[in-house]
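Handoff note, outgoing to incoming analyst
You'll be picking up this chain. Sequence as last confirmed:
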Amino acid sequence: MTPLRLLIVEDAEDDATLVVRELARAGYEVSHVRVDDEASMRAALRSRSFDLVVSDHAMPRFSAAAALRVLTEHGMDLPFLIVSGSIPEDLAVSAMRAGAHDFVTKHQLARLVPAVQRELRDAAVRAERRTAERRLLESEARYRRFFEDDLTGDALFDADGRIVDCNPAFVRIFGFTSRTAALDGSMAALFARPEEHGRLLDRVRRERLVESFEGELRRTDGAPVFVVGNVVGDFRDDGELVGLRAYFFDVTARRELEVQFRHSQKMEAVGRLAGGVAHDFNNLLCAIGGYADLSLALAGSETLRAYVTEIKKAGERATLLTRRLLAFSRKQVVQPTVLDVNALLVDLEAMLRRLIREDLQLTTDLDPAAGAVVADAGHLEQVVMNLVVNARDAIPRGGQIRLSTQALAADRTPQDVDVPPGDWVVLTVADDGVGMTPEVREHVFEPFFTTKPQGEGTGLGLATVYGIVSQANGHVRLTTAPGQGATFRIYWPAAPSRRAASAAPASPGPAAPGHETVLVAEDNAIVRGALLELLRRSGYGVLEAADGEEAIARAAAHVGPLHALVSDVVMPGLHGPDVAMRIRRTRPDIRVLFLSAYAEELASGGQPPVPGAAFVAKPFRADEFLRRLRDLLRPQPAA
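Most recent structure output, in case you need it:
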């Protein structure tokens, strides 16, 4: 038996029974509800589901036409058959137009079963079609949402390359003002170089699908946009290309990060090279300076003294160059103190005015709240002077250089959003010069990069600034554009609230002669020779060692007091700190003075640290070295 849920709209119970009996004889298992007015029909439709509606044509309180309206209002597509004793032909036609599917007279109930079977089949077909249509609409809506929400820029192109459709991401990536504006565009317009567009189309025709296509396209404003994408061709059966589907993912930000990473790698490599070269030069300059000082003490004629003085000056200029290299590579030995930045700028102002031309005006705007920083005074002076000289050279004629300071607390957002919040002292150097193009701006902090004519610049000034500030855990930021000058902002970590030291300490006098015994451990023979001669001529007794093992052996074999160890930090075999600790096991009172070419040597000099040790950075002046040793050997106050 086939189940059949039947709604009968009929005022006569006997007529309803006849309909049920006829359908039961045809093999249907009928469950039915009989109604005879609008209210009961609405209640029935709300309470249960039906497969079929059979309605009388005219009833005292209801009609087939009224029943059709109720069914339509409920949004139900059920087979609707009219079964009536008699019905005029014109009314039957009107009922069919209103939505009835068929009509059967009560004296011809034999037609009822075939009509029901036919209408049930048609209703099933309609239901399947509606389901398919609904699923299609849902699928289209789902894929439309996917298309609209996709972060990938999706677009459809016709055979001529015109944009047929695109999603919001495509509009955003390529800078269109709207989807409507994008539909006026073409694929060719996305390519800065037409030949690349042509090559892509050739690949699509050959391969049909081009995966992981990488290229530099362009936005509507001409700015480059780097993409990775897939391009799919749509072809006719004869192989003719009729359209394209493209899916572009914007990797511009990633590309910029890769460029920055490669740039940082290059800078790091150059820094290592600069540090290594400076280290070797520092040893040579130690010897040049030392022997020059010794020669000046022995020179008998003014002419010879003048020659040696020039040698010493050349060595000092070379020392400044190596310090710049070390500052760039962040390997310079620093001696930081708490400095008042405003006081340092006031002290430097007279010298800065001598550095610039008469047609340039130097102005200062110093924030009284700027406070102090922890810095090496020489480093901070070098930063200021390099930036001022750079500003001077950027102004061809007549202009202004502005120096300013600003206190920036941790609760205030820096002007440069990529600088983390913190307590900063911001030093700004701005000029009215020619400014820089984006290409120059990209390389401005690279060592040996310069826009000046050959022979007029080393290309180390701004690289030195970058190295010094980075070594101090600060930040350098530049704002510039052609014709709009340049503004450098130095973010230097503010010092804790302590009393600032003088930025320019008074020059000490010459070191007093010595008489103590000093062990010199230095693997560079030229530097060692210069140190030994310098110490002997200053009255010291000296022992020499070419490495750490020899130094320990010489200390153990020496009979008598050994007052000081002067040692290079890094030597073959044992490093200086290890040597000092070994010697102190038997000579606990020995003073230790380390010689260091750059900061990494101090950091890698060995463990444990040597309490009370002092150091002198290479290259050093003879009087500086002797004075440091004399201070170290001075008797210590009783505890």
